[in-house]
């Protein structure tokens, strides 16, 4: 009897852990899309979170754009009242966030595929397996996260003298589609029978970092699906206690801070740190990229969600443009054309300071401005806001396909443009 009881208890514990009992739930939480027209409204809008518990999903840039905001049932009426008082127009784009999250199925035990989202150890096991199976892959732990998790890289090289393309994934924890897409691309480069894919894998070296933010990613699986930053206590606190994390795509040292920086609250989801290069994950990434000889890496692509953009340098200004901006625009256009051909998804391209908002510290700006890599970009994957950060898992494969198609034409155009010469 005792043995049976222990067995039942162990089984219950196992079941409970599979269900992640501590993960925050969002039953009846709504997502509002608020259209902030002018800077006066923006100033007030920024203050709402001081007295209502809300979660703004976008970094606050300028006025004249919309912001998606998650609000729990307790605060919805008050939030709507505040927007009404400020004369901020809004739509409710998600009625029940939990229902949406439930569509992003995670099968903790399923082997690696691109039908469902996977936890970190499944992704890493798959990476290790590929490395064991193919001797043209060189795999490395390039450093460790704050909580001590390895940050892994895969370098694919089948031919001496190739130039390299860097692909970076999941620097923002909640953007699960990023690492899903990066591993999809890597899998295509390794295992696809498609001739063009095989040619890409033959004629170029690929340096892939599928998971730059393992701590944040694990945290999004176990505790808080909406987490963006890493998990280092950042030295500040607010009414709910110590604040954690740095937005690592604002931590790179190129024109860091300055215009559009606008950090008022270090507990914000887009806090870029007290100084650039403060995060060990970022230092590991930089040291790794620095370990290659100058001129070897010719393109650097950072995958993010969402909005369907190819964002080019610069981020820190919208009046100054990179010397080869027109060339980068042509290459970005090629990506957009290739991607659209697959399923009709439209990607918009241009300098991030223009298309998004002026902000510094992103990987692509560092890769371009500091490392002199002649084509760099941030690719914001699907979608344009229907599911936003919570793209259902049944879209992973389609995203993989369209991005791979985009990549093929991007590389072809970059070759035409002499990027790899
Ligand atoms: Zn991102």
TrEMBL record:
InterPro entries: CARBOXYPEPT_ZN_1, M14A-like_propep, M14A_act_pep, Peptidase_M14. This is Zinc carboxypeptidase. The active site is at 380 (proton donor/acceptor). Pfam families: Peptidase_M14 (PF00246), Propep_M14 (PF02244). It comes from the Eukaryota. CDD domains: M14_CP_A-B_like. Residues 116-414 form the Peptidase M14 domain. Belongs to the peptidase M14 family. Its cofactor is Zn(2+). Gene3D superfamilies: Metallocarboxypeptidase-like (3.30.70.340), Zn peptidases (3.40.630.10). SUPFAM superfamilies: Protease propeptides/inhibitors (SSF54897), Zn-dependent exopeptidases (SSF53187). GO terms for molecular function: carboxypeptidase activity. SMART domains: Zn_pept. PANTHER family: PEPTIDASE M14 CARBOXYPEPTIDASE A DOMAIN-CONTAINING PROTEIN-RELATED (PTHR11705:SF123), PROTEASE FAMILY M14 CARBOXYPEPTIDASE A,B (PTHR11705). It comes from Drosophila arizonae (Fruit fly). The gene is LOC108617499. Residues 1-18 form the signal peptide. Keywords: Carboxypeptidase, Disulfide bond, Hydrolase, Metal-binding, Metalloprotease, Protease, Signal, Zinc.
């Amino acid at each position: 009897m005792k043995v049976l009881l222990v067995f039942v208890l162990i089984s219950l514990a196992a079941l409970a852990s599979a269900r992640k009992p501590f993960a925050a739930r969002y039953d009846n939480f709504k997502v509002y899309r608020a259209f902030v027209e002018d800077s006066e409204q923006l100033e007030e809008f920024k203050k709402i979170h001081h007295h209502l518990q809300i979660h703004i999903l976008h970094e606050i840039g300028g006025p004249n754009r919309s912001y998606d905001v998650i609000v729990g049932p307790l605060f919805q009426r008050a939030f709507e009242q505040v927007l009404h008082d400020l004369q901020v127009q809004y739509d409710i784009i998600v009625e029940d966030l939990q229902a949406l999250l439930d569509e992003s199925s995670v099968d903790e035990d399923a082997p690696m595929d691109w039908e469902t989202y996977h936890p970190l150890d499944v992704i890493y096991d798959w990476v290790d397996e590929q490395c064991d199976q193919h001797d043209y892959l060189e795999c490395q732990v390039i450093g460790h996260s704050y909580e001590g998790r390895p940050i892994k890289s895969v370098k694919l090289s089948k031919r001496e003298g190739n130039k390299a393309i860097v692909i970076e994934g999941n620097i923002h924890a909640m953007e699960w589609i990023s690492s899903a897409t990066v591993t999809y691309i890597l899998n295509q480069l390794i295992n696809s029978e498609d001739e063009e894919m095989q040619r890409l894998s033959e004629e170029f070296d690929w340096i892939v970092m599928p998971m730059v933010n393992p701590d944040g990613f694990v945290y999004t699986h176990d505790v808080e699906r909406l987490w963006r930053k890493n998990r280092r206590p950042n030295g500040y606190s607010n009414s709910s206690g110590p604040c954690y994390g740095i937005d690592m795509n604002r931590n790179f040292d190129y024109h860091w801070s300055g215009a559009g920086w606008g950090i008022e609250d270090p507990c914000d989801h887009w806090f870029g740190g007290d100084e650039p290069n403060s995060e060990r994950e970022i230092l590991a990434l930089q040291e790794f990229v620095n370990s290659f000889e100058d001129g070897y890496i010719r393109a650097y692509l950072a995958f993010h969600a969402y909005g369907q953009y190819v964002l080019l340098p610069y981020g820190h200004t919208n009046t100054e443009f990179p010397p080869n901006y027109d060339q980068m625009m042509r290459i970005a256009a090629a990506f957009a054309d290739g991607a659209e051909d697959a399923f009709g998804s439209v990607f918009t391209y241009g300098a991030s300071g223009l298309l998004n908002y002026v902000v510094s510290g992103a990987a692509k700006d560092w890769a371009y401005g500091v490392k002199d890599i002649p084509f760099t970009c941030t690719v914001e994957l699907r979608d344009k806001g229907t599911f936003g950060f919570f793209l259902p898992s049944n879209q992973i494969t389609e995203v993989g396909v369209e991005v791979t198609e985009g990549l093929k034409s991007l590389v072809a155009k970059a070759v035409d443009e002499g990027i790899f010469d």
